Amino acid sequence: xxxxxxxxxxxxxxxxxxxxxxxxxxxxxxxxxxxxxxxxxxxxxxxxxxxxxxxxxxxxxxxxxxxxxxxxxxxxxxxxxxxxxxxxxxxxxxxxxxxxxxxxxxxxxxxxxxx
Length: 115
What we know:
By secondary structure, the protein is an all-beta fold. It is built from no helices and 11 strands.
């Protein structure tokens, strides 16, 4: 059973920064990709960013230049550094991992950006 444990959410003012962490219960190289999604109230869940085992990254257009996804291989952990946060980015942020068989989800962490 794969576990994804998120941390780092919280309350921040618009323009501020937060860093989210997602620790996986097995090597990140066993996944095709790991990443972050978010879901705001009344909206669909959307991809924020992901990273593949070879380090290739992918970002939603709305976060390019402000968010950075990275990883610590030794810790089986993926990070999302979020800068210049906007009020409309208030949402639950979910860690995601996928392998050839299925997707895995963390429980989510709340990010609230006050204007």
